[in-house]
Amino acid sequence: MFVNISEKITNRLIRDNVIEHCNKEIYLFGVEQFLTTALNIVTTFVIGILLGELWQSLLFVLLFMTLRSYAGGYHASTPLRCYLLTSSIIAIALSVIKYIEINIFVCVGLLIMSGVVILILSPAESPNKPLDSIEFVIYRKRTIVLWGIQFICGVVCATMGYGNILICITLAHIILALSQLFAKVEQKRLKKV
Predict the structure, then answer these.
(1) Lowest-confidence range among 2-16, 86-100, 114-128, 154-168?
(2) 26, 155, 164, 167: least surrounded by Cβ within 10 Å?
(3) What is the pLDDT of residues 24-60, one digit of tens each?
(4) 126-169 confidence digits (pLDDT tens)
(5) Dist CA 86 CA 80 (whole Å)
(6) DSSP characters for the chain?
């Protein structure tokens, strides 16, 4: 997505003797990842501000990305598609938080149902992110621990009157469960081809 800008920045760093030419590919990748991450952070802030749900947007993304990094799930085929899909998911989740009243008991039920999917499918591989057997075991354990921590935090926060935190956790888990289901469908589709 930022190939040209990354190339210019990396070439400038080489020209200014900040980095060596032999390390160009490593820095090129790093600069591109940094720019992509920065764009995602800015987009999250903008969507949160526009919907008047800034802290919810940050919490949702933090919860989702933390758990998803171990649980796996669907990966878009290009960085642009990933960006558009992620931005859409954030906007939808924040719209649900803002405009739909969700009962706490319904939240806990949805949290448990999505948790079952997450715990059964974790870690969900994708063709872009295959795992070896050691990674599989480690990621599965970390997913279980993180899911448990987020679940307990959500329930405790809800009992203390902070229902929006439970809703953020629930939406993050529902979307993660859907992402894992899509990854599974994609895996089966690719095996047939």
Answers:
(1) 2-16
(2) 26
(3) 888 888 888 888 888 889 999 999 999 999 999 999 9
(4) 776 678 889 899 999 999 999 999 999 999 999 998 888 999 99
(5) 10
(6) --HHHHHHHHHHHHHTTSS-GGGHHHHHHHHHHHHHHHHHHHHHHHHHHHTT-HHHHHHHHHHHHHHHHHHB----SSHHHHHHHHHHHHHHHHHHHHH----HHHHHHHHHHHHHHHHHH-SB-BTTB---HHHHHHHHHHHHHHHHHHHHHHHHHHHTT-HHHHHHHHHHHHHHHHHHHHHHHHHHHHHH-
pLDDT at 150: 96
How far is 31 from 29, CA to CA, in rounded Å? 6
CA distance 24 to 22: 6
Residue 129 β-bridge partners: 126
Q: How many residues does the chain have?
A: 193
> Tokens at residue 60, please?
């949702």
Q: Looking up tokens 């989702």, which residue turns up? A: 64
Q: Which of 62, 55, 155, 143 is nearest to 110 (CA)?
A: 155
